[in-house]
Amino acid sequence: MADNDIIEAPSYEDTISLLKAKFGDKLVFRTSTKKNNRAINQKRRIFLSTDRETIYPLCEYLHGKLNYEQATSVCGVDWVDHLQVVYHITNYFTAVMVEIEVDVPNDDPHIASVTPIWGGANWHERETYELFGIIFDGHPKLERLLTPQSYEFYPFRKSYKLRGQE
Amino acid sequence: MDMSLYPHAVAMSADEFMTWSSAMINEMLSAGTKKTVDNLTGPIWAWAMRNSMHPLHFGLACCAIEMAAASAPKYDAERVGMIYRSSPRQTDVLLINGWISKKIRPDIRRLYEQIPGPKWVVAMGECAISGGPWYDSYNIVQGLDQIVPVDVYIPGCPIKPDAMIDGFMLLQKKIDAYFKRGVFMED
Amino acid sequence: MTEKMNADKMWVTMGPQHPFSHGLWTLRVKVDGEIVVDAEPEVGYLHRGWEKECEQRTYAKIIPMADRLCYSASMTWSHLYCKAAEEALDIEVPERAQYMRVIADEICRIQSHLMWLAAVGTDLGNLTVFLWALREREFFLDLNVRLCGQRLTTNYPRIGGVRSDMPYYFERDCMRAVEHFEKTLWEIIGLTDESSIFVSRMKGIGYITRKDVANLGITGPAMRGCGVDYDVRRDDPYDAYDQLTFEVPVLKEGDTYSRYMVRIEELFQSCELIRQAMKKLESIPKTAPYRVKVPRCVPAGTTCAKIEDPRGESIMYLVSDGSERPYRLKVRSPVFVNVSASKNMVVGNRIADIPAIMAMIDMCLGETDR
């Protein structure tokens, strides 16, 4: 059936229109105001933000239908009143990179893991867990990776101060 | 350059050689038997140990690349006797060349204890001397001398391979002084 | 009576201090006789909290810190950081600086690949390659010294351009180094490629399918040796790369030998790039600016900059809040993901092949652990 066929190299416009058609107003697209950025001017970057219920179906659609093969990075940001997870997903054929921001509340830092879709996100999510405390549900092995096992704090949160910082 | 450890490389006239050698022999024979044996064999041990310092094959960070470049043809470290050994049981020198995180700290202590004595420790680079650019990190030990006793500090970030060879020549002096006091009969 | 022999599989720790590990990491492998059935890499021995320390330093002070992320290829990392800061400030770098950055990057790439070749030589038992590759590398380190005073962690790019213009006779020195290197690289290839023992130690092991490579996020020459045709310099060009023509070597076999061949071919392509960039620089007047002045504070917003590191595709994601220090600076290192995929590469091969497989990933643990 034509709807299930994978599009190998969806262009920038195609990607945006297909995503809008599938997810409607759950995705909020952002346009960048930068004038001197070559990648943005040549239409290789898409910026959007969404909520944490949509992230897994969105990633499945990006991987399954739009052939965005590589989860380039998954990182966390600590805005003091809430946490945020930022995904960067790339397509090898068109070199378009999608940046997805998802807000996660402080008191319930759970979000679905995209490791079943892209194996490359495995260690990125583990690192975000150990540095920020964001828990990825469905991750095969969510343990400390970079810091010693005995550490119990989340170093990259703004509440943890480094030596010499008050 | 300090050539006191390499008298064979210094040119002397015949008279100078007579004075130097007779002074040496007088000094060696002027004490009792034990001391004489020590004085005779001490320099031999010193010469052997200082010209064959075997460091451990342990590269941590940026200074390890310069350590590898020091074994390269341009700065050949093997001419001062350094051959890297992979097992700590076969080395004399523990060469730490990078920042020390809390995870590797027990392993460094363990490697130090696995090296059979007499052993020396060389701290290469700013990170091993005092923590380096990572002064406010939550995971970095601020200096190698918090874990093991250090003999030679080589500053630089990253150090030049010339500085590493110079540091090893300083270590040679230290080894020389340690063995020349005569350890053969005194244990 | 068939009593099944309790042939235990055992976990072998190829620990942090091991001659094969280029960098400080542990690979625990579960072996059944000689064949590896499971593997578990363990990293974190060099973790410093780099990204958190960056939040305490002003934008200009982070450039030497970015050098020490991957110390073999430090020019590309400080270039990436400056690119991220410039995109956040939304300024355009002058043309002369763009070409200088391209030349510096390619010198860095050649020198990093030569260090990799030296490590491959030691791992596979060919110590002459170690000596010859490091001897050639010294010429490019001398070029670095002429350009910016330091051999390894160069601190050459600045936000808004480069630190200084080319010194006198730099074109002559650069061309001499490149021409000399192109001849001696054939000698080194004569030691490696034409030695059947060396080749047979690499062919047919460490195989990954193209689908796995894309899914696991492996980038760089390891990816191009498995059939994925993607290079940030060509597909998502930055600085002066869209004015230069070069080929991107891609091989389809997916084993260790093809990853090795891709890097050797990249050495030739880097020489070609330096030559073209030097030629194009002749048409730009020598008094053209190589640096623009930038404001101290970066406007609020998010930026994502991408670059082709010798080891793969690196990204810096910068969140700024209008002050003179970054709010969050995330580094995506290619080796981090390549090492996480080491299980797929190693399982099924013999334990004696592990040094050859892991050598082809070209690890630099400073950027993995940050």
Describe this structure as you would to a colleague:
The complex is a heterotrimer of chains A (166), B (187) and C (370). Chain A has 166 residues and is α/β, with parallel strands linked by helices. Chain A has helices at residues 12-23, 38-41, 55-64, 122-132; strands at residues 28-30, 45-50, 70-79, 82-90, 97-105, 110-112, 135-137. Chain A has a single domain (2-32, 40-137), classed as 2-Layer Sandwich (Beta Polymerase, domain 2), CATH 3.30.460.80. In chain A, the strands form two sheets. In chain A, strands 1-2-5-4-3 form a five-stranded mixed sheet, with helices on one face. Chain A has a two-stranded parallel ribbon with strand order 6-7. Chain A is globular, with a radius of gyration of 17 Å. Chain B is mainly α and 187 residues long. Chain B has two domains: 12-50; 62-179, Rossmann fold (3-Layer(aba) Sandwich), CATH 3.40.50.12280. Chain B is built from six helices and five strands; from the N terminus they run αααββαβαββα. The longest helix of chain B has 20 residues, at 161-180. Chain C has helices at 50-54, 62-67, 74-89, 95-123, 127-148, 170-192, 196-200, 210-216, 221-224, 232-235, 256-282, 334-340, 342-346, 354-359, 365-369, and strands at 10-14, 26-32, 35-42, 157-158, 161-162, 301-309, 312-320, 328-332. Chain C is α+β, with helices and mostly antiparallel strands and 370 residues long. Chain C has a single domain (50-363), classed as Cytochrome-c3 Hydrogenase, chain B (Orthogonal Bundle). Chain C is built from 15 helices and eight strands. In chain C, β2 (26-32) and β3 (35-42) form a beta hairpin. A three-stranded antiparallel sheet of chain C has the order 1-2-3. Chain C has a three-stranded antiparallel sheet with strand order 6-7-8.
SSE inventory with pairings:
The complex is a heterotrimer of chains A (166), B (187) and C (370).
Chain A: H1 12-23, E1 28-30, H2 38-41, E2 45-50, H3 55-64, E3 70-79, E4 82-90, E5 97-105, E6 110-112, H4 122-132, E7 135-137
Parallel strand pairs in A: 2-5, 6-7
Antiparallel strand pairs in A: 1-2, 3-4, 4-5
Chain B: H1 14-29, H2 33-50, H3 62-70, E1 93-96, E2 100-101, H4 105-114, E3 120-124, H5 125-130, E4 140-141, E5 152-154, H6 161-180
Parallel strand pairs in B: 1-3, 3-5
Antiparallel strand pairs in B: 2-4
Helix pairs in contact in B: 2-6, 3-6
Chain C: E1 10-14, E2 26-32, E3 35-42, H1 50-54, H2 62-67, H3 74-89, H4 95-123, H5 127-148, E4 157-158, E5 161-162, H6 170-192, H7 196-200, H8 210-216, H9 221-224, H10 232-235, H11 256-282, E6 301-309, E7 312-320, E8 328-332, H12 334-340, H13 342-346, H14 354-359, H15 365-369
Antiparallel strand pairs in C: 1-2, 2-3, 4-5, 6-7, 7-8
Helix pairs in contact in C: 3-4, 4-5, 4-11, 5-6, 6-11
